[in-house]
Amino acid sequence: MERYSRQLLVLGIETQRKLKDLKVTVVGCGALGSTLTELLARLGVGHIRVIDADIVELSNLHRTHLFTEKDIGKPKAIVCKERAKEINNEIEVDTITDIIDENNVESLIEGSDYVFDALDNLYFRLLLNDACVKHSIPLIYGGVMSEYSSVKLILPKKNACLSCFLNYEGDEENVCETIGTLDTVVTITASIQVQLMLNHIRGIEDNYLYYIDVKNMRFDKINIERNEKCQACSLHEFKFLHGKEQKPNCGIIRIDNKILKNEFSIEKRNNELIICYSNGKCFKKVSR
Ligand SMILES: [Zn+2]
Q1: In this structure, are residues 211 and 220 in contact, taking their beta carbons and an 8 Å threshold?
Q2: Residue ranges of the domains in the chain?
Q3: pLDDT for res 11
């Protein structure tokens, strides 16, 4: 307990024990996900699952303080695990080098006490939201754009979910737009996400959407009511889980493994990266 001695003075032994017993899933291990993983590992969350199919690139380093130049070309999920274990070897970390889709998302989050949304695409966020609402798993949303971000603890069927207030139009230009950001806003966003989890395990059911504007130093809390016509938490249509929405053709996409090497490999083809893992799964990453 020496490791947590200063933290125990704030949280107390009961909360620390709860943290040790927690099973948390971090979906996406880019800027937000790697920062979340670090915070969760330092806190002493007993089991962390990290899901990401991407690899570390030079252009990630300005906003991901968990990754270094030595990590370029390595799978993000594996680097997140290695770094988390270096920080705290008393916890368990498992990695899934895959993307979520309507077939795997429910089994990937099964048994989680909390799911952290560290994704960068609205389609996948709403898919994850569908799965968490369906299985009544608390979801902690974090979305970063430029020098702004928003954060919300989603308690399925108790407070507003993402589908209550976010609309997906399937518009490629909007969904696939590359948006710049800064590590400063990423770090504060991940910190608020983890604090919402810490508060929740201590009995605080926070219903606000937090809006952070670091440039103008604004921190707003917005009360969002549940939407009676929400397709996820009210009508239980779960359109994303049922594959009824158009998938975006950008970012990282699973492709058929024609190479059949069954080993980790990266191949560059024009503006595309082909990433294959030893589990036989291959992905195409399109640079735009
Ligand atoms: Zn809803």
Answers
A1: yes
A2: 2-247, 250-288
A3: 95
- What pLDDT, on a 0 to 100 scale, did the predictor assign at position 288? 57
Per-residue pLDDT tens over the stretch 152-167: 999 999 999 999 999 9
Q: Where are the alpha helices (DSSP H) in the chain?
A: 5-11, 13-21, 31-43, 76-87, 105-109, 122-134, 162-165, 172-175, 183-201
Chain Cα centroid distance, residue 92? 18
For residue 34, how far is its CA from the centre of ligand 1 (angstroms)? 27
Residues by chain with Cβ below 5 Å of ion ligand 1: 161, 163-164, 230, 232-233
pLDDT of residue 175: 63
The CA 165 to ligand 1 mean position distance, Å, reads 7
Q: Which residue stretches of the chain have pLDDT < 50?
A: none
**Looking at domain 2-247, which of 3.30.470.20, 3.30.70.3270, 3.40.50.720, 3.40.50.1780 is its CATH number?**
3.40.50.720
